[in-house]
Amino acid sequence: RLVIALGSSGSRRIPGIVALVISNVVDREMGAREAVLAPRVVWDPSSEPGVLIEVFPPNTGEMVESLEERGYHIVHRVEFPATARDLIKCGAVNAVLFDPASQSYAAVGDPRRQGVALAAQR
User: Fold this and answer.
1) Strand 94-99 and strand 50-55: pairing?
2) Which of 43, 79, 101, 106 falls 20 to 30 Å from 87 in CA-CA distance?
């Protein structure tokens, strides 16, 4: 069983951002790096609720249009290449995973905010 420690910036969007990364690890069986780097679709519970979406594979422009046709309000659509200002709305997850079976660690800092992961050497 994996052990994961993670956190993110993102104000009221933090629970959705963190839940998405956890779901990537647990449900989609992604590694730490893949789970953090995956494109995000996040509910924004601000005063004008809506969806923040990063449009790069597997997310497509057609997917965004389909959500809009279903009545979802897209409050922030990030297409690549994106500016740093565009990326910050979708959080910045830093995560460490520990696999007790292999006694190995994996760590990742979110490049959305120039995050890095460093490890001490024994």
Assistant:
1) unpaired
2) 106
Please answer whether residues 41 and 47 qualify as being in contact, where contact means their C-beta atoms are separated by less than 8 angstroms. no
Question: For residue 34, what pLDDT is reported?
Answer: 95
Distances 69 to 47, 49, 54, 63, 106 between C-alpha atoms, Å: 22, 16, 18, 10, 40
CA-CA distance, 10 to 8, in Å (whole number)? Answer: 6
Q: 14 phi and psi, to 5 degrees?
A: -55, -50
Alpha-carbon span 72 to 50, nearest angstrom: 7
- Distance separating alpha carbons of residues 104 and 98, to the nearest angstrom: 6
User: How many helices and strands, by DSSP H and E, does the chain display?
Assistant: 4, 6
Residue 38 confidence class, pLDDT cut points 50, 70, 90? very high
- Strand positions, DSSP E, 1-122: 3-7, 41-44, 50-55, 74-79, 94-99, 104-109
Tell me how far apart the alpha carbons of residues 106 and 31 are, in angstroms, rounded to a whole number: 8
